[in-house]
Amino acid sequence: MGQVKSLADLRKIKEDLQGKMSLRENSNNPESLVQIRVAMATCGIASGAKQVMEFFIEEFDKRNIQAVVTQTGCMGYCFAEPTIEVTLPGQAPVVFGYVDTKKADDIIEKYVKNGELVDGIIPVNYETIEKK
Amino acid sequence: MSKYKMHVLVCGGTGCHASESDQLLEDLKTIVTEKGLDSEVQVIATGCFGFCEKGPIVKIMPDNTFYTQVTPADAREIVDEHLIKGRKINRLLYVDPENQEHIADSKHMGFYKKQLRIALRNCGFIDPENIDEYISRDGYEALAKCLTEMTPQQVIEEMKKSGLRGRGGGGFSTGLKWEITSKSVSDVKYVVCNADEGDPGAFMDRSILEGDPHSVIEAMAICGYCIGSSIGLVYIRAEYPLAIDRLKTAIAQAREYGLLGNNVLDTGFAFDLELRYGAGAFVCGEETALIHSMEGLRGEPTVKPPFPSVSGYYGKPTNVNNVETFANVPVIINKGADWFASIGSENSKGTKVFALAGKINNVGLIEVPMGTTLREVIYEIGGGIKDGKKFKAVQTGGPSGGCLTEKHLDSPIDYDNLIAAGSMMGSGGMIVMDEDDCMVSIAKFYLDFTVEESCGKCAPCRIGNKRLYEILDKLTQGKGTREDIDSLRNLSHVIKDTALCGLGQTSPNPVLSTIENFWDEYIEHVDEKKCRSGQCKALLQYIIEPENCVGCTACARNCPVNAIYGERKGVHVIDQVTCIKCGACLEKCKFNAVFIK
């Protein structure tokens, strides 16, 4: 992408991205993909988030599931690293803690495929600036 | 895709567990299966909701019903009424303490409004290495707005009106600092971001840089525009390699987009960023020491004035702000000073990020509006004290702060209240302590840190803190006297009054606040040579209860210093002079004959 020259340019980029991001924010598009976000701050990586992220990318590929796996910063649940957030199409995001590759396998088989929750859910309890 | 239509989430945190949430979970599962709903409804235990005061908690998805104080006896009603007939059970709903209304949807619960994420708005949400994701969340819009629609003075006025105060500890008005630097006349000025996070237990700055580096870059550019600077420097400790990497990536992306460089957003405004690495000295969080360290000199503070805003980096006007302070700036510009000032308490606006650590269940990062009480933070967000123990104190402000006790639980947290209570905001570390912590030892721990980190330039800090440490050590050895406590007090006040910089001026705070709030414990250490929490090993005595001892010799065989003697099948005795209090005898005794006095 080229240089951003003005506020209008910036807003245009934002609009272009909005479609893509809204999948992630609202997941209200039934055709959209499974979204997985892995918390990759120092604390997460130290507890194995990198391996977990690689595992998800490889396994979704192997098991032929359409999904987007991205990294993000610290979600704040340091007691339960590595943490991931899974958003199934049309559903509210669910945060899972203590995710090792075994738990990741469980999450793919049970939650992603069947919508069956697995242990280690972290209830999210904060407000965002959009709502305020 | 999903075959389950409903999920019943039962809190499995320690607090709820203690009030029979496991039984409740089992009962719910049994009844759901009994009714043949198990293919449609899934019952599962979750992590702690944080709201342990009202536990056990049951949440039903997807309708977001939030039931509080649910007992196993309620299980059948939940299944029959809610899951089968779809009727919510009023008496189990959370009651709003303000208007006594039953709240059905958890999104409207006050408890969800306890946390508000402003500085952490993008942390854990966007990919920090992708500038597009930042832009799609209003990123760089504040900068564009400032450059094209506002004069520097207007931006400064907006910052002043917002009431934002420095999040690094001191709490100086950010807008005022910008104004002072903007008025200094010079050919070159600098914007510095203080990312030298040194308080034990605080890691919000690292998390922001790792999770949302662009917010800091954008804010620094805005600051540059306001004060008339074209160079920003981020002073970051080398121990934060990931934060450094992400920041470098972010800077490169911003340059590529023309959001940093000679012609930002095609407005002619020039601003670029460089990194400076610190070696992780606590004193380098002090702005003058930080600047000296960046200049390649020893990280030692100098007397203020002159303040950095007049004469800083290489003698040029320099505006130093903390990471979290910067992270708030774009939101203030986008949503307006009035919006920001509507959050928080009278003299402390906005939110504060705290790093919860110590004996608390939900260790982690939280962000709450200023004025939230300690009780709310610990019991409604932090999930309460570990293992159901009793709360004793919370240490805020790191080595510069003090310990707050039960009597402070209900006072709102803001800059002024914390100082009035003998502590300070600091960068936002919150270390929670329970009944097993010895407050004299805690004071000693912090003094140990300060002695290690003192730069040694001024005598009060270099010598005074060392003496404080020695006296505290004497107390924990059981060799202290009442005069020692007086000396602690006097010396503390002298250090506070005479030390050169913030480090020394605040280093006696842990001592003073523990003396103030835990006088009994100090007296016990001195008069009774007793440590009630059993942390001061020198004050413990391992004793063998003759009635329980069968003479098995297990203790004597395992004692590393041969301090236990006695005949086989006869009562054993511990020689207190030789005993090193390792506890091996207590661990090995199968007859509960060894105890601690």
Describe the structure.
The complex is a heterodimer of chains A (132) and B (597). Chain A is of the alpha+beta class. Chain A has one domain: Glutaredoxin (3-Layer(aba) Sandwich), CATH 3.40.30.10. Helix content of chain A is 40%, strand content 17%. Chain A contains 4 helices and 6 strands; from the N terminus they run H-E-H-H-E-E-E-H-E-E. Chain A has helices at 7-26, 42-46, 49-62, 101-114; strands at residues 34-39, 67-72, 84-87, 94-96, 121-122, 127-128. A 5-stranded mixed beta sheet of chain A has the order 2-1-3-4-5, with helices on one face. In chain A, helix 3 packs across helix 4 (101-114). The radius of gyration of chain A is 16 Å and the shape is globular. Residues 23-31 of chain A have low confidence and may be disordered. Chain B has 597 residues and is an alpha/beta fold. Chain B has 5 domains: 6-113, Glutaredoxin (3-Layer(aba) Sandwich); 131-338, Rossmann fold (3-Layer(aba) Sandwich); 351-434, Ubiquitin-like (UB roll) (Roll); 439-528, NADH-ubiquinone oxidoreductase 51kDa subunit, iron-sulphur binding domain (de novo design (two linked rop proteins)), CATH 1.20.1440; 541-596, Alpha-Beta Plaits. A 5-stranded mixed beta sheet of chain B has the order 10-11-9-8-12, with helices on both faces. In chain B, strands 14-13-17-15-16 form a 5-stranded mixed beta sheet. In chain B, strands 2-1-3-4 form a 4-stranded mixed beta sheet, with helices on one face. In chain B, strand 13 and strand 14 form a beta hairpin. In chain B, helix 20 crosses helix 21 (519-528). The radius of gyration of chain B is 28 Å and the shape is flat. The N and C termini of chain B lie far apart (62 Å). The chains are: A alpha+beta (132), B alpha/beta (597).
